[in-house]
Amino acid sequence: MILFCILLASLIFRLEVNQQKLQQSHINRYQSYLLADELRQSSDDLTRFARSYAVSGEPRFKQYYMDVLAIRNGEKARPLQYHRIYWDLLIGDEIKPRANGSPKPLLSLMMEAGFSEPELQMLEISKRNSDSLVLTELKAMNMLQEPHIEVNQPLDTAAIANHKVVLDDLFSVHYHQLKAQIMRPVDEFFDLLDSRTQSQVAGFTKIDSDIVNQLIALTIFLIIFSILLCLALFKFVLRPLGGEPAVMNQIALSIATGKLDIPFNDNAIGVYKSLKEMTLNLKQHSTERENRAWLQEGQVSIDQVLRKERKEAKISQLVLTTLARYIGASVGSLYVWRENISDNGEGALISSAVFAHTHNPDQPSHYKLHEGLVGQAAAELQQIIVQRIPSGYMRIHSATGEHQPVQIVLIPFSYMGRLRGVIELAFMQTITPLQTKLLESLRESIGITFENISARNNLHDALEEAQNLSEELQTQQEELRVSNESLRSKSKDLEQQQETLLLSKIELENKATQLEQSNQYKSEFLANMSHELRTPLNSLLILARSLQSNPSGNLSVEEVYSAQVIQDAGHHLLELINHILDSSKIEAGHMQVHYEQVDLRLLKKLFIDLIKPLAEEQLTSFKFEIATQVPQFINSDKLRLEQILINLISNAIKFTKQGQVTVSLNLDQQQQNILFCVADTGIGIAAELHQHIFQAFQQADGSMTRKYGGTGLGLSISKDLALLLGGDIELTSIPGQGSTFTLSLPLQARQQELASIPEKGLLDRENTPFKSTEISTADQDSKHILVVEDDLGGSIALQTLLKFDEVQVQFVTSGEAALQALESGCYLAVILDLNLPDISGFEVLETLASTHRAAQPEFIVYTARALSDDELIQLNQYTDKIIVKSSHSDERLLEEIHELILEKSQANATPNPLIESDEAIDTTQLQGKTVLLVDDDMRNTYSLAKILREGGLKVEIATSGAQGLTALDKNPEIDLVIMDMMMPGMDGYETTVKIREQATFKNLPIIVLTASALSGDRVKLQRAGANDFLSKPIDMKLLYESLIACV
Prior knowledge:
Strand order of the largest sheet: 3-2-1-8-7-4
Number of strands: 25
Strand content: 5-15%
Helix content: 55-70%
Distance between the termini: 117 Å
Radius of gyration: 56 Å
Structural class: alpha/beta
């Protein structure tokens, strides 16, 4: 008996091990399906992304393509739960990229899966064909990224043709053939896998059968052994007791014939009890074996059905019919899940197959999730078993009658958690746990099959769509070919024209380059000549003027007249140089415009005072009229406007003898432009010469130059200046009756207003003669003047000009010498040239300003250099006396010297009350503080900066609100801000608000200078963040007190 138990346990253990191997075989088959399906799916994903990139051109599809390829080749980590719909969900933004697993090539995973050599060979062939197709797809995508354009094709046609080639490659029959070469080995792999799996299942089934046979043999042996044992017992034990029991004999006969349903007495003991337990064990093992065999047979039957058919409708019917017959269901329905079938884009379950089902018009043909029992089972992905069916819910019909089902089972099947469908079965009897187990085991395999069918249908639809698109593209290609033929002929004509245009363009570019170089050479030449001509010419004019005045009285009348001729000729030559320089500036685009408010009433007074003396000598009448509708102020460049009007009025007077000149101001019909009309009753100009006279160095005819004089540049410069100001000059004239020049300017500037740079001393008084007066000897008490000039002729001229009693003049020829002289001596004034041999005049001024001397001399910049606006701003930080050498610059220089001597004399005679009030204030607290002075009027800035420096402050200057903000950013050490209220562009109020918006300058003291007496303006400034405000004119005592209070 012990040996029998050991053998029985061994057989049961072998049977269990064999069942586990059988189950593992099914698992391996499923994993193999997944790997092979991933190879197929990766090829489909690569095709889809390549075509999507070709059609849409979106870079993300190409990136998805490269990601799929990298994951398959093991170059990139494989995402966890990487399945066939991973990319669909990622593209649809339904999931985020999953956490990465380990990078591993798909081919390595296949080798680790333990495939047979033929199976692995099929997969390698499929992957090799897929890699070949990848090269085709990459080539197509690269063609879209860097299109090749043929020389004889127009750009638009070449791009279309390039795109057409790519689409042809991706949708052609050859492409589909390459695709089929990938899928065919996969299909053969499935056949090999099925064959291997069936062989393994058959082997395990045979082993099971052998083990069962062994168990039967062991049982028969046990029966025989039991019979013999009974006989022995009967012979040696029972017979002496009276014979064998009839019940034990009957049990033995039943076991021997395989009938194990034997009733036993519950009170069995001894041998009878042992027989009872043995019979129950045999019956249990037999039942388990039958159940396993029944499950395996059902799974194999369904697997065979799933491999037979590829069309969804047929396989749905086969699966439902086979399953219903095998499991004993009376009625059944199979529903397949469809995506995006409803109007709102939701999916639904559609009836695909029925079994013994009676049509009911009230029953819906499709179900949404959570709709009915079908929709609920689909939503939960769990079996639902319905018992106690209500009356009238469902009837099972046949030809002989009908009956209500006892139980309804709904089995959803899915793939990787993705719903694929639901099977509904109705039973006439209660379903057993074994039937439930079979239904549960089939859910996954049915889901895989329907997922493959869905993917195959999607691919088929995509291929049909691609085929249709390919046919459409072929039609379009034919149309394009026809149009290309016509375009090609036009393209040849265009190429010839392009070659001609290219040659013309190259020729024009060469000419433009030559012209630019020529203009550059001319600009450099004129810039150099400006200094080289003006410096000696200025000396010539000063000396000629000195000779003409004949201070010693030793020159004859004829010699004085010769000096006058020299001076007049020099003035004429200097005027010609100035005109040439102005014309060159305008031509080179270097002439800058400074817009400001121009008072036309003051302009009228200026010209009446200026022209009246000249008009009284030559004209019978001179009028300046302003119409009533003309506004008092216009927005323009005052200096350029005066220059234009001076030229026009001077020409009118020049060509009018004993006649009348009238200047009239009016508005045009649109009330947008102001018209300055200069009319004369002079000689007039012929119509054919109207445009001619506006050209450089041209007059009405050659004889006029000799008769009336002039350079012929005045009208040319005036015309260019008018265009620069946004206007124009027009001429109407009748020979012998007179001419009318009309200057038209816009009332408002056509460009953004710029900060006006005052040019006091440079232009305001440059050409205004200074009436020489005697310099009293009382004003010449030990006056020392330092002249910094490296030109010998200029030094001699200045020595002659400044030669009067008790004024001592010292000459130096370099910047270093000037600094040494100022270090050791005290001077009333320094006349400074900017072009020095060692250091420039700018550096001299900066060096002296940094020394903070108690008593700085007055600086007069006296130069022949043409100054830019930036240079003027730089110079105005140190002086407002800037004189450019011209015809009357010597008189300007004498005027400035005279004013300085008078100021010195008055200072010595009477103390200045302002200075006294300043000296009464202790400015110790302000020593070393840095103040930012923001004002667009450089004359005010210079004078205020000078006084503040004398008070021990460091001064930074900005000419606009924007420059003030920049200065604060660059110089965070600024302690105070003094700001003018009225500035062009960003005024003082807006600038204050901008400063307070920065956290760094929340507490920076700001004092605003304003000419407004309105309390509302002051409240507005206070709210903007100003610490204090002072009214103009400025009381220095109040300013110092405000600065000290802020500190």
